[in-house]
Amino acid sequence: MSSGMPAVDLSNCDREPIHIPGSIQPHGALLAFTPDGGLAVRSANAGAMLGELPAPGERLDERHLSLLLRSEIGSALQAFDSVLGSLSAELHERCFDVIMHQADGLLVIEFEEREASSDKLETFALRAQKSIARIQRQRSIEQLLVVAVEEIARLSGFDRVMAYRFLHDDSGEVVAEHRRADLSPYLGQRYPASDIPRQARRLYVLNPIRLIADVGYQPVRLVPEIAPHTRAPLDLSESMLRSVSPVHVEYLMNMGVAASMSISIVVKGRLWGLFACHHATPYLVPHAVRMSCQVLSQIVSMLVDRNLTAQHAAELQRSLALRDVILQQFERNDDIVLALAENPAPFRQLLACDGVAASAEGALHISGAGPEREALGALIEWLIETDQPDVFHTASLPRDVPHLAGRFGGVCGVLALRFDREQKGYAFWFRNEQVMDVRWAGPPHKEIANGPLGPRLTPRGSFEEWKETVRGQSLPWGRSDIDIAFALRGGLQEGSMAKASALRRAREMLMATLGHDLRDPLQAIMIAAQMLDLNSGSGGGVHNRLSQRITSSSGRMQRLIDQMVDISSLQGGLGLPVSMRDVELGPLLAEVTEEIRLAQPGVELHARLDGLGTVWADPDRISQMVSNLVSNSCKHGVPGTPVLLEGCRLDDAVVITVSNRGAPIAQELVETLFLPYKPGSLNNSRNRGGQGLGLYIVHEIVKAHGGNIGVRCAGGMVVFEVRLPQSATQAGQAAA
Question: Do 428 and 539 have their domain in common?
Answer without folding.
Answer: no
